[in-house]
Amino acid sequence: NASGAWSGRFSEPVSDLVKRYTASVFFDCRMAAQDIRGSLAHARMLAKQNIIGNQDLSDIERGMAQIIGEIERGEFVWTLDGEDVHMNIEQRLTALIGDAGKRLHTGRSRNDQVATDIRLWLRDAIDSILVLIGDFQKNVLDLAELHAATPLPGHTHLQIAQPVTFGHHLMAYYEMTRRDAERFADVRRRTNRLPLGSAALAGTSYPIDREFVARELGFDEVCENSLDAVSDRDFAIEFCAAVATTMMHLSRLSEELILWMSPRFGFIDLADRFTTGSSIMPQKKNPDVPELVRGKTGRVNGHLIALLTLMKGQPLAYNKDNQEDKEPLFDAADTLIDTLRIYADMITGIKVKPDNMLQALSLGFATATDLADYLVKKGLAFRDAHEAVALAVRAAEIKGGELPHMSIDELRACMAHVAGAGEKIGEDIYAVLTVEGSLASRSHIGGTAPNQVRAAIERARARLAK
Ligand code: ARG
């Protein structure tokens, strides 16, 4: 390894295959900006502590500025011989500025360097994700507001259960992603700690100032144990767990969009830009984007398991295994970022079909619970009311209709077995059996009544504005 940083120790070079196998430059080069930021902060600290000279520092700053330009212009030559982003940049720096470049790595190891780079990178990724979750939520709130009173069949077991509003249903996804955002903010707190200064594993004998470096890089605090700082990747695992959870939520929404768009439901249409046709069936308009969100959720789950498995057998401190942390981490972030971007737009392209939603609600006895509650309010015990309504549903089914189609006499007759039930029924029963009545009656915080949905949207908007 002629160009390696440790060539003196070795009697033969590694094979090309081993070089390729051990290199990470082709994926970790995307941390170049973070690597340079970290190096500059380290160099400033070294100069401040008189570990390197001020001339060294200004040479390093000049060289790094040049390298940043080369990378931005696409002129920087990444080499396999350089192995990873850290050594590629350091080698180029030394080629540009000479001896000062060789002093940069004083009191530092690639082990604390890479851990710092990943944390800086991840912090940026989390900040982007938080903004994108907010964008998604804003569009969800807009659609929910339009449909705060639009009746939708609520399902359990994919069977029609009770009426809800479409706005209320959408607001469930606002709540899920609100917790997702909390999770990311929480991961960010633990990510935003500085490993640099831990050196290879034991710390360093130079009179370093870690707090200074932490401040330079915007870290909230320093990692307090050098062995832990260079070797653990729990922050990356937590991040992937938060990504997997968010993707799981979006996957559920995707599953619903797919169902709702199916002609069997016919509740919505997706804008054409999120769908594709079939190469053979001319009539098809397929919900490819939500299907891919559902599919990519599996891939992200895999990344979480990959990282957990990567860490579980590693003795302290750093092991090269850790180099395998980056691809799953990057891909998890990329996948979620693309998914959120596309989803925010997709929400605005949902065309709602309220007539079909209402039509579906008129089947399936969606207001049966309301009838039971009606009897309870008139003095029947809930279990008796439940039984009386079950009898009514059965009778309606035999007759081939729904509850509102039954006359008062028919309702009384079928409930005859339940003592006291029939006599509770009066003309006011029909108001209770309507969808609007059912919706309006669930008027408490968290309920589906349109006024409650609007209040929830208002609270959400206030939170987003903060
Ligand atoms: N490319 C390595 C990584 O991603 C950098 C740290 C290498 N350190 C070492 N001692 N081999 O983890």
From TrEMBL:
<comment type="pathway">
    <text>Amino-acid biosynthesis; L-arginine biosynthesis; L-arginine from L-ornithine and carbamoyl phosphate: step 3/3.</text>
</comment>
<comment type="similarity">
    <text>Belongs to the lyase 1 family. Argininosuccinate lyase subfamily.</text>
</comment>
<dbReference type="Pfam" id="PF00206">
    <property type="entry name" value="Lyase_1"/>
</dbReference>
<dbReference type="InterPro" id="IPR009049">
    <property type="entry name" value="Argininosuccinate_lyase"/>
</dbReference>
<feature type="domain" description="Argininosuccinate lyase C-terminal">
    <location>
        <begin position="365"/>
        <end position="439"/>
    </location>
</feature>
<keyword id="KW-0963">Cytoplasm</keyword>
<dbReference type="InterPro" id="IPR008948">
    <property type="entry name" value="L-Aspartase-like"/>
</dbReference>
<feature type="domain" description="Fumarate lyase N-terminal">
    <location>
        <begin position="8"/>
        <end position="302"/>
    </location>
</feature>
<dbReference type="InterPro" id="IPR022761">
    <property type="entry name" value="Fumarate_lyase_N"/>
</dbReference>
<keyword id="KW-0028">Amino-acid biosynthesis</keyword>
<dbReference type="InterPro" id="IPR024083">
    <property type="entry name" value="Fumarase/histidase_N"/>
</dbReference>
<dbReference type="GO" id="GO:0004056">
    <property type="term" value="F:argininosuccinate lyase activity"/>
</dbReference>
<dbReference type="InterPro" id="IPR020557">
    <property type="entry name" value="Fumarate_lyase_CS"/>
</dbReference>
<keyword id="KW-0055">Arginine biosynthesis</keyword>
<keyword id="KW-0456">Lyase</keyword>
<dbReference type="Pfam" id="PF14698">
    <property type="entry name" value="ASL_C2"/>
</dbReference>
<protein>
    <recommendedName>
        <fullName>Argininosuccinate lyase</fullName>
        <ecNumber>4.3.2.1</ecNumber>
    </recommendedName>
</protein>
<dbReference type="InterPro" id="IPR029419">
    <property type="entry name" value="Arg_succ_lyase_C"/>
</dbReference>
<dbReference type="InterPro" id="IPR000362">
    <property type="entry name" value="Fumarate_lyase_fam"/>
</dbReference>
